[in-house]
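== Polypeptide entry ==
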Amino acid sequence: MTRTIRTTVAAVGVAASLALSGCAESGAGKAGSSTLNIATLTFPQSLDPAHAVGSALPFFQATYDTLVKREPDGTFTPMLATAWKYNGDRTELGLTLRDDVKFADGTAFDAAAVKANMERFKKGGGADAKWLNDLKSVKVTDATHVTLDLAQPNPAMLFYLSDAAGLMANPAAFPQADALKTTPDGTGPYRLVKSRTTIGTKWVYERNADYWGEQLPYKNVTISFFDNETAIVNGLRTGQVNAALLQNADQQISAESDPRLKAAKQEFDFQGLLLFDRGGQITPALKDARVRQALNHAIDRESMLAAIRQGRGQVTTQVFGTDTKGYDKKLDTRYAKDPAKAKALLKEAGYAKGFTLKLPRISAIVNDALAASLTTDLKAIGVTLVWDDLDGGSAIQKVFKDRAYSGMVMNMGQSSSDWVVVNELVTPGAFNMFGTTDPTVQRLLPQIQNGTDQAAQGAARALNEHLVTEGWFVPFYRMTYLHVSDGTVTITPQSGMAVPSIYNYAPAK
């Protein structure tokens, strides 16, 4: 599953609320403070990088370096790897490593450490372990040179090495794997202060005095968990929180109305109906592209965006995000609301009397207003929408393991990598659980995977248009998030991530 749905489901049922009086560190809220206090609505269940997920990456970036660094604009720059190069058919990726990096116990970071980490990540059973499915072996040439042997070209490999799969831990800690869940052991810019950390509530990091790279501007970083955004906004106003991401439109408006707070906007997640059952195994009607097109024409995206998110976002009918090469602006408005056309398409497909569509509903994702809007829009074309209310735990089982539903309304993160989008949504997997494909998809995927940059871009755009035309999905809109600070911090949004990297915070000038 993608990071957004994982974190949303993980947050369901979390009842512990962090009192504001307990989250502030000394000196917080003052310009030039030595401490950065970040508020979050999600947190990792483990600090072991073998189980890291992108939605919680800052927790790991504080104590672990990645092989490759992903800059705010999505480009890649050296980190623990100083250089990289593919062979001719891009089935081997050679990395040149730094020779001046040590773990806390003095153990040198080297090619053997890379091999141990990547093999462990692949076999570790983490949510993103599949990212290394194409990794056949890791060949160590010498201490500073390693080659990743791939079963097939993977255009997203550098992206993965800048994310969870690229986090490097001390192999000496692997025999005590349980210890890594609460005691990170990496080469990163900070160390976790266990005496001041309460797992599940507050994580306190202090600067690593022996860090090999350029020190980040804050001596201490605290990440505190909140279970609601109202409390976060209150913390920002009092200076007990310095920086946070706000997703709720009402709280965004509240934050923007306060002149003391500074904000930066970012479009990241899209919300929409992911159709799994395009083969009609559960809902036979969905096998016909005309039915899927009818669903797209039934939705009043503009009204939904205005009423549910107060206009905070951009309507869209495509799943490729704006940072990808496959993105095509004209596809944002391919399907206008047109109930008459939707009915005509259903009639052509043999469903003049409509059909029943049963979907799971997690209230944290589908609130009452969204549920009512979709029910009304589909009823207008003769489709009866039945909601099956689930909690987070039962949703994982029934949706992704039992495959009990034809689709699900989700909030989906939009990667900056075209191949990540393809792997998550188009190739067989969690979100293409029935393995839907067709000749056009089969023709274009190898071009994206193996082609030159220009050919891959053309194929990605062609695939995107094909998916939209065939109605593989029913996206509603991309959601605008707000990165908010108390005025003492400048926050730079991160391409490919909803939350900023730990490197993207600086004292306001």
